[in-house]
């Protein structure tokens, strides 16, 4: 074999090696590209699932807040109606006493709210929050849940202070009001509870008169009751307003999530 033939053979071998190397490199790059594309699809599916769960939680939160808002409104109306009635004791007839007593008992009811956070917790634990490309939406999700947590704390502290402590001390611990069950308070679980209590107590049960009607018109104890009722009513109105704001915040976030999910589907 001549030198020229050897060189030609070597050249062909080198060409095949280069071609094979090129094919290998292209295959590797293609594999990486497919893997990256597939991972991107998986991340997209994870984000969509997490946001869907988060949206469901927000819808549930809106329902809870609207119920709490209505509950707070009823509490405020009952407390402030009692304030108005008791402020003019001479105008209270026996017929009006039953209505006032119902308002007083209704004022002592309170509710604890716990908004769902499973979707947000999932976003944090899985790292899917960081996979949301819309930074504004990410910030809104975090801001809403931080605000919702503060809202829960404020509502709980207000209820504990105004209802559990101040009002119940003024009405119940003082012995001015007997918290007997009532048939028509219109407050879901309390209504069911009172109906069952009346059933268990039987027909022989006789209500004892409430000592609040023995208070003198200008007595210090009456003023304490009026102040406690007003504070409770004001706290309930505050809860109503806060709930309204949180509902608006949640609805706005739902709209933003819907828009982002629509973008991901296109």
Going by helix content, strand content and strand pairing, the class is mainly alpha
Main beta-sheet strand count, sense and barrel state: none
Strand content: under 5%
Q: What series of H and E elements makes up the topology?
A: HHHHHHH
Taking the alpha carbons of the first and last residues, their distance comes to: 65 Å
Radius of gyration: 34 Å
What coarse outline follows from CA principal-axis ratios? Answer: elongated
Low-confidence stretches: 35-39
Q: Work out the helicity level.
A: over 70%
The number of strands is 0
Index terms:
266 residues, elongated, single chain, mainly alpha
3D structure, described in words:
The structure is a single chain. The protein has helices spanning 3-86, 94-107, 118-126, 128-131, 135-173, 188-201, 220-265. With 266 residues, the chain is mainly α. It has one domain (37-265). 79% of the residues lie in helices and 0% in strands. Helix 1 packs antiparallel against helix 7 and helix 5 (135-173) runs antiparallel to helix 7 (220-265). Mean pLDDT is 85; it is low at 35-39. It is elongated, with a radius of gyration of 34 Å.
Layout of helices and strands:
Blueprint: H1 3-86, H2 94-107, H3 118-126, H4 128-131, H5 135-173, H6 188-201, H7 220-265
Brief account:
The chain is mainly alpha-helical and 266 residues long. Helix content is 79%, strand content 0%.
